[in-house]
Amino acid sequence: MKLLIIDDEKSIRLSLRIALSKLGIKILVAASGEEGVKIFDQERPDLCIVDINLPGISGIDVLKHIRKKDKDSIVMMITYISEVRLAVEAMKLGANDYFTKPFNMEEIKESINHNIKYIKKSQEISYKEKKEIAEIIGKSKDIQGIKSITKKVGNMPYDTFILVQGESGTGKEIVAKAIHFNGIRSNKPYIALNCAAIPKNLQESELFGYEKGAFSDAKKMKKGLIEEANEGTLFLDEIGDMDILLQAKLLRVLQEKKFRRIGGIIEIEFSANIIAATNKDLLEEIKKGSFREDLYYRLNVVPIYTTPLRERREDIEILMDYFIQQYNHALNKEVKGMTHDALEICKNYEWKGNVRELKNFIERVMIFQEESLIDVENLPENIINYSTQGKGSVVVTSNLEDVEMQVINKALKENGWNISKTARGLGISRITLRRKIEKYSIQK
Question: If you average pLDDT over residues 422-441, what whole number do you get?
Answer without folding.
Answer: 80
